Amino acid sequence: MSQITSGGMVNAYVPGASTAVTAEEATLISRRQKLLGTAYRLFYEHPVHVVRGEGCWLYGGNGEAYLDVYNNVASVGHCHPHVITALARQASILNTHTRYLHDTILEYAERLLATLPAELGRVMFTCTGSEANDLALRVARSATGGEGVIVTSLAYHGVTSAVAEFSPSLGRQVPLGRHVRTVPAPDGYRGDGDVGRAFAAGVRAALDDLTRHGIKPAAMFCDTIFSSDGVFADPPGFMAEAVAAVQAAGALFVADEVQPGFGRTGHGMWGFERHGIVPDLVTVGKPMGNGHPVAGVFGRADLIDEFGRNTRYFNTFGGNPVSCQVGMAVLDVIEREGLIANARDVGSDMRDRFRELGQRYPVIGDVRGTGLFTGVELVKDRTTKAPDPETTTRLVNGLRERRVLISATGPHANILKVRPPLVFGRKETDVLMAAVAETLAAL
Amino acid sequence: MSQITSGGMVNAYVPGASTAVTAEEATLISRRQKLLGTAYRLFYEHPVHVVRGEGCWLYGGNGEAYLDVYNNVASVGHCHPHVITALARQASILNTHTRYLHDTILEYAERLLATLPAELGRVMFTCTGSEANDLALRVARSATGGEGVIVTSLAYHGVTSAVAEFSPSLGRQVPLGRHVRTVPAPDGYRGDGDVGRAFAAGVRAALDDLTRHGIKPAAMFCDTIFSSDGVFADPPGFMAEAVAAVQAAGALFVADEVQPGFGRTGHGMWGFERHGIVPDLVTVGKPMGNGHPVAGVFGRADLIDEFGRNTRYFNTFGGNPVSCQVGMAVLDVIEREGLIANARDVGSDMRDRFRELGQRYPVIGDVRGTGLFTGVELVKDRTTKAPDPETTTRLVNGLRERRVLISATGPHANILKVRPPLVFGRKETDVLMAAVAETLAAL
Hints:
Largest interface: A-B, 103 and 103 residues
Distance between the termini of chain A: 18 Å
Oligomer: homodimer
Number of domains of chain A: 2
Number of strands of chain A: 17
Order of helices and strands of chain A: EEHEEEHHEHEHEHEHEEEHHHEEHEEEH
Strand content of chain A: 15-25%
Number of helices of chain A: 12
Mean pLDDT of chain A: 96
Largest sheet of chain A: 7 strands, mixed
Low-confidence stretches of chain A: none
Shape of chain A: globular
Helix content of chain A: 25-40%
C-alpha cells in the first residue's frame, strides 16, 4: 500500500518505485531532499518536472505538454494574462499593509460580498486557506465561548497547529484535538437511504458527545464538496438538516470554500449555495488569486465585529493592494469568460463520458460531482463496492505517463479526483477521455 | 490612555480623536468599518491615505510625499524595479506548487542556506511569519515531545491560534496558553547589571516553572531584536547564556528573524549572528519578499527530516516559483546595493543624531538599536526613567502631520520604533531628524 498512501498521502512518489526517472530528475530529487527535507513529497511514481504553464497546460523542459486536470489553484488557467497584468501593474504602484487607508481593498471587499448572502456582511483577508480556517476557529470560539469542533471523518482544513488538529486526513501521526469529533461523510454511493438525514444524525451524535464530555460546541467546518472525503455533491440540499442542527445547538457553521469556491461547482460562486444554506462563516483560499497567496474569511457582521473589538488581529500581507487587484482580476475572468457556466457544462459532459466508459469498464463503480469537480470511484466489484486502490494508482500513473495529470482521494485512495482549471473545455475533455480509455485498455 | 494603546495596539486611530480627517477620508474609514469590521485598525490620530510607493516614500492622492521610517516589509524600498521585474516575469512563466519538480525553489533554498550556519541545513517555505512560527512550534513539539513554550513578556510571534497563545503583546483579551511562560525582556536601560545574566536567570526560572507544572519544555522563541518588547540589541552576545540554558534543558531555541532578519541589524543577514549563537530553528517572513507573501523556517536537518517523515505538511502557495524568484530578487538587491553596510552606517549615524538631540531634550531617555532598527525611549525624568507615553503619542502624530511615518512600541508605548526600509540614506535621515527636532520644539 505504500505507493498508494505514503505517509498518509495519496499518489506520493516513493523513491525507487519507477525506473523511468531520468538522471537529471534523480539529481533534482536528491537536491530537494537535501535542501527541503522529507516533508516535500512529490506526486507520481515518476515525478513531473515542469518549467512553464499556460491555460490548462504545463510544459516540461523539452516542450512536452502535460494536460493539467488537477489544478484548482490556477483556476482561471495557468499564467492568465489579465491576472498577470493586474499583478505587475499594482506591484509597481503600491504594495503595503492595511494600517493605512487605500481604496483597493474596499473595492475588492465590495465585489466579494456582493456574491454572498446578505447575512454575510464582512470580509477579513489572510494569505492562505489554513490561515483563514485558523481565523474562523478563533472567531467561532470568541463568539460561542465554546471549544468543540465537528468535521467529517477524512476532512482536510489546513496545516496550522490548531487546524491540523481538526484535519483527520493528515493521518494518525497528526492527532485530533480532544475537543474534535468526526462524523461520517455524506456518502451517497456507499450509504443507505437518505444522505441528508444520515449526515444530520452523525452531526447530532457528535454534538451530543461533545456535550456529554463537557465540551461546548464552537463550530462545524465542512468543505462543501467534501473533496478529501471522496467528492460528495448530491443531492443538492443534503447539508441543510445538519447545518440547522449545528446552529440550533448554538454553534457556528463554517463553510470551507477553499476547494469548491469561486465557481468550481458550476452553480453560482459557492458550494454552499447548492445546499440552500447560509453559513455563519465562509473560508476561501486556493483559487482566489490564481496562485497568488490570498485567502480570507467572510462572516456575519455581528460575529466579525465582536471578534475585532476584543481581539487584535493583523495579517501583514493580508489584503494588500497587490493581492486585492489580483483577486479582482480573477473575478473579472470568471465573469468575462463565463467560467461558472463552463464548469457546469464541461463538467456535466465529462461525467457523462466517464459513465459511458463505465459501461465498458466495470471497475468504474461511481461517477459523481458537480461542475469541474468530479470523483470517479474505482471498485473491484460493483455489488460489494470493494475499493480498488491498486487500479486507481495504476490509472493515475498511467495517465501521467500519457502526460495527463490527475490524482486520487478518499479513505481508500480509490477515487479519481478530477479537478482541472475552470477554463477546461470540450477539446481538453477529449484529450482526457482518450487517455483514460487508452490507460484502462492497457491495464 | 485610549489613544496610546487602543485594544492593546499602540498608535491606533481612535474615531473622533482628530479634526483633521477630511470628508473623503471619513468616507473611506466608514466603508472600511462596514466591509472589513472592527479588527481593521488604522495608524495615527489622522490616518494616512496612500496611493503610491517608491523607495522610502509613500504618496497620497494629491502627490503629497510621506517619508516611510517604519516599513520593514518593503525592505529594499517600495516597488523596487528589480523585484517587480522578477515577479512579473516568473508569474508569466509558471506558478505552481511543490508536488512537481521545478528548479527555482532549489536555487533559492541554496542561496538562503548559504547565509546560515552549517548546522541549519534545511528550509521549509510558508507564506507568512505566523505560519512560519506555527510550523516551528510543530517541529519543536515533534522533536522534543514537549509542549512548553518560553517567550519574553511582550513578545509578538503571530496570529494563528497556536502562535497567538504565545504572543503576550496581543493583550489580555488573547490569553496565553497554560503551557506558556514569559520571561523579562533583556532591558539594558531599565535593568540593573549584566543583561545576559539577568535574561538567562529569567529563562532558567521559566524552565523550572514549566517542569514543576509537569510541562516538558519544547522551545524558547525570541525575536532577536526584541521589537515589541522595546528594541534591545546590546551588548552583542547577551542571548548566549539563555540559549545555552534552553538547549541544555532539551528544548529548542527558535530565532524569530521576521523583524531583524535580511540585513536589518547591519551585521550580517541575521539578528542572532550578533549574539554568537546557533539556533535550532529560524523563522523568517516580512521583508523576505519585499511585500510578496513569502516566509519560511530554516532548521537543523535532523529536526526537519524527523518532522517530515512523521507528519504530512504541505503549504499550497509556499515555495512556488513566483515567491522564490521574488525572494531571490530581494537577495540580489541586498547584495548589489550593499544594504547591510548601509543599514549599519545609516543606523549608527541616525542614533548619534538622536543622542545629540537628547542633549537638548531631556525627554529622550535612551537611544538604542542596531542597523536600521532604532528604539528611542521617552521618559518624564531621566533619573526615575518614568515612561512618557503622552509625549511619545504627540511626537508620533506630530511627525505624521509633518509627513514622516513612524510608530511606537514597548510595554508603556513610550519607545519610538524607527525602522525604515533598508535603502534609507543620509538624505532621508536629514528629513527625519529635522521633522523630529521641529516636532519636539513645537510640543
